[in-house]
UniProtKB/TrEMBL annotation:
EC number of the protein: 3.5.4.4
Gene: add
Protein name: Adenosine deaminase
Originating organism: Rhodococcus rhodnii LMG 5362
Cofactor note: Binds 1 zinc ion per subunit.
HAMAP family linked to this entry: A_deaminase (MF_00540)
Length: 370
């Protein structure tokens, strides 16, 4: 086989083979990834009667259509139903267990799943109890996946809601559980009117504790949100960050001129937790073919592929990769690079990240690239 033939063979992606390659997921919401049948069953068990449909198929359709509004605020309303059925120990553990199993079945070998503990207190659980039950579910799911021949490791990110006033409390919770499976902290929710700098106390606490955090920024709001997340708050990663392109000018020949903030993000290798399907649904991008993922990848920003909310976007890591392949023509080496980008950016110790890259990711892609 000639070099050109080998390169062509390596580049051609067999969509059917995508579930078999190792993947790394950094941005996935626990309350956005429930199985529709589980939502229905948990609603029955806890007496929640406000579901918009009475069948699993009907629920799946409703969540997808409601999330396709093009508005982040409308998109976030869908979570009222999933959060409502995640208020009991059994509900939390089941959702977490199924999350780990579903991700492993899709070839995810490492994931960081996030959720907001403060939203799961309606039935008397404490913040610590909520986290304990989710961690128990994740560990159970890891064991179940391993028993079926799939190995996955799931770290937990604790999210504070940016419109509320509990971020310092949630940051302390994250540090309290960091040796038990919590790998970091996050803030989420509607960006407009809720700047990250409002939560400086929480971020200063995390930095003082030498703990990791990411910030939802640059999704529905532009460069000021990204600037504050980096300059004032010191974020390790950007949740979404698609609006960094507001600081990139393209010339008539396609040449790019980066502004100071975009240059800084690229120079510092600040990871972008891009979620292609979700970014279209929330209106951050008008169509997948116009998603800045490809531009940012070509400019060598540290781009990563993520699902955001698997239920609302009717997606998985394999589907996100397939959509990128079909839209931008990526090959196996590209997908391997995006996966290694994510593993480099994970909130794990360096030696553990390197071991997964060398022992799992690279051998896994070597199989499909021949």
């Amino acid at each position: 086989m000639t070099h050109s033939e080998r390169t062509s063979a390596q580049s051609t992606v067999d969509i059917a083979a995508l579930p078999s390659v190792p993947k790394v997921l950094l941005h996935d919401h626990l309350d956005g990834g429930l199985r529709p049948a589980t939502v229905l069953e948990l609603a029955g068990e806890c007496g929640y009667t406000a579901l918009p449909a009475g069948t699993a198929d009907g629920l799946a359709t409703w969540f997808r259509e409601a999330a396709d509004s093009g508005s982040l605020e409308r998109y976030l309303e869908t979570f009222e139903h999933t959060v409502a059925v995640m208020q009991t120990p059994a509900g939390l553990e089941r959702v977490a267990r199924e999350c780990a199993v579903d991700l492993a079945d899709d070839g995810v070998v490492y994931a960081e799943v996030r959720f907001a503990p403060e939203q799961h207190l309606d039935r008397g659980l404490t913040l610590d109890e909520v986290v304990e039950h989710v961690l128990a579910g994740l560990r159970s799911g890891e064991s179940q996946a391993q028993a079926s021949g799939r190995r996955i490791r799931v770290g937990l990110l604790l999210t504070a809601m940016r419109h509320a006033a509990r971020s310092r409390e949630i940051a302390e919770l994250a540090v309290r559980f960091r040796d038990r499976g919590v790998v970091g902290f996050d803030i989420a929710g509607a960006e407009a009117g809720n700047p990250p700098s409002r939560h400086l106390d929480a971020f200063e606490y995390m930095r003082d504790a030498n703990a990791h955090f990411t910030i939802h920024a640059g999704e529905a709001f532009g460069l000021p949100s990204i600037h504050e997340a980096i300059a004032f708050c010191g974020t390790d990663r950007l949740g979404h960050g698609v609006r960094i392109t507001d600081d990139i000018d393209l010339g008539p020949g396609g040449e790019a001129r980066l502004g100071r903030l975009a240059n800084y993000v690229r120079d510092k290798r600040i990871p972008l937790e891009l979620c292609p399907s979700s970014n279209v649904q929330t209106g951050a991008v008008d169509a997948l073919e116009n998603h800045p993922f490809d531009l940012l990848a070509r400019l060598r920003f540290r781009v990563t592929v993520n699902t955001d909310n698997r239920l609302m976007s009717d997606t998985s890591m394999s589907r996100e990769m397939a959509r990128l392949v079909e839209t931008f023509g990526y090959g196996w080496p590209d997908l391997e690079r995006f996966t290694i980008n994510a593993m480099k950016s994970a909130f794990l110790p360096f030696d553990q990240r390197l071991a997964i890259i060398d022992d799992v990711i690279k051998p896994g892609y070597a199989v499909v690239m021949g």
